[in-house]
Predict the 3D structure of the following.
Amino acid sequence: QVRLVESGGGLVQTGGSLRLSCQASGFDFRSNGMRWYRQPPGKEREWLGTITSEGDITNVIPSVSGRFIISKDNVKNTLYLEMNNLKPEDTAVYSCNTQTYWGKGTLVIVSP
C-alpha cells in the first residue's frame, strides 16, 4: 500500500524557515520522481516543483526559486522541502505527490 505522509508544517513568522518532510512507503521510492504542491486558503492547488528519481535535477516555480529547495533521500525514502525567507503568501497546505498518489498535506502558516 502506497503511503505518503507529510510533516514539518506549522506557524512561522515572515522571513523564517521550515523544512517539510514527506515519508514514503509501499513503492520503489528510488525509481520515482516526486513533486511538491501547495494549496493556499480559498485557492486552487498549484504545482511547486519536481525532483528526479535520483535527486540530481530539480525544478521549482519562479515565485519560490532561490527560497525553496527540494531534495530526496533515497535511503530514508523521504522527500524534503526546505523553505527559507517565508512570506505570508506562502501560507498553504503543502502536499507531496508521485504518480497518482498524494499525501494528506501539512499546513504552513506564515504570519506577517
